[in-house]
Amino acid sequence: MTTNALRLPAEWEAQSAVLLAWPHADTDWAERLDQVEQTYVALVGAITRFENAIVCVASAAVREHAETLLKTAQANLGRVRFIEIEYDDTWLRDSGPITLADRKQFQLTDFRFTGWGGKFEASRDDLLVQGLIQRGLFVPAAHRRVDWALEGGGIESDGAGTILTTWKCLHQRHPQLSRAEMDKKLIDSLEARRVLWLDHGYLEGDDTDAHIDTLARFAPDDAIVYQACDDASDPHHAELAAMAQELAALRTADGRPYRLFPLPWPQPIRDGERRLAASYANYLIVNGAVLIPAYGDAADAEAARVIGLAHPGREIVAVPCRPLIWQNGSLHCVTMQLPRGVVA
């Protein structure tokens, strides 16, 4: 157990801004750039209703183009800050800073980013946190480089010292380490008290090796929102049912079961023969609202209802995310919240 006052805040705590990177023709989005840009316009428009958006752009031309699209859509450009910086891809949940906080002190924790276990080129993404610091984005804060592969989408924090993660993902990144060794690494690097592991749960089409943010999310007052599957004929059914049993067996730090909120299961979405990873668990919490992925499915409305129950008092805003899942992620994956006070 750590004695440091730093901790990893829960996502529902107060934020300064949401960080994201604009897609462009030199990223993997090139083939369907127009479609994905419409999702980004809707996403930035939704974020800036509630707080600031910090948008990374690869060049002045990308900035000008993004600004024109946002202005046309009447987004609140007064809440948009552009930062010109190189990046390989736009999944900033995984390459952005994991920010630990202690009142007015911050630590920008900068884990090694390997392109999800070496699947994709990631050398520029691995330099992103350092580059943002050099560009003066943050207030004076400790920059801790951790030479150990971990992505922000692979962990959930309840803000009180508990980390939720999946064995499949971290075992893929670090096959030589035992669970006890990984417990220690996560506790030490995230200033946590304990780690809860899920052994089950996956989504076809997901190339992150079962990131927790596609499967199960902490919510206030000892709750967990999770992706369920009620279709017994679907190949996900048995695995997600086993995950639901694992979640039911978990206990809070003081020994109570978590309050569980199962999310509905959308109909399969395919790109040709390839099934896409459509998860309602991949939502983003901002100040006063929850932005939820919408897939044009009949289950969208029920997902909004369930997430609203788990996050009472927040407006629920749907963002069209079909274009995002073509590249195997969704709304939470392309964003990273920054705690209140850390942005200069």
Task: Produce the secondary structure layout.
Elements: E1 15-21, H1 33-47, E2 52-57, H2 60-72, E3 80-84, H3 92-95, E4 98-102, E5 105-112, H4 115-118, H5 128-134, E6 142-149, E7 155-157, E8 162-166, H6 167-173, H7 179-190, E9 194-198, E10 216-219, E11 223-227, H8 237-249, E12 259-263, E13 270-271, E14 274-275, E15 284-286, E16 289-294, H9 300-310, E17 315-320, H10 322-325, E18 336-339
Parallel strand pairs: 1-2, 2-3, 5-6, 8-9, 11-12, 16-17
Antiparallel strand pairs: 1-18, 4-5, 7-8, 10-11, 13-14, 15-16
Describe the structure in your own words.
This is Agmatine deiminase family protein. It comes from Tahibacter harae. InterPro entries: Peptidyl-Arg-deiminase_porph (IPR007466). Pfam families: PAD_porph (PF04371). Keywords: Hydrolase. With 344 residues, this protein is an alpha/beta fold. It has one domain (15-339): 5-stranded Propeller (L-arginine/glycine Amidinotransferase, Chain A). 26% of the residues lie in helices and 26% in strands. The protein contains ten helices and 18 strands. It has helices at 33-47, 60-72, 92-95, 115-118, 128-134, 167-173, 179-190, 237-249, 300-310, 322-325, and strands at 15-21, 52-57, 80-84, 98-102, 105-112, 142-149, 155-157, 162-166, 194-198, 216-219, 223-227, 259-263, 270-271, 274-275, 284-286, 289-294, 315-320, 336-339. The strands form six sheets. It has a four-stranded mixed sheet with strand order 3-2-1-18. The protein has a three-stranded mixed sheet with strand order 4-5-6, with helices on one face. Strands 7-8-9 form a three-stranded mixed sheet, with helices on both faces. Strand 7 (155-157) and strand 8 (162-166) form a beta hairpin. It is globular, with a radius of gyration of 19 Å. 46% of the residues are buried.
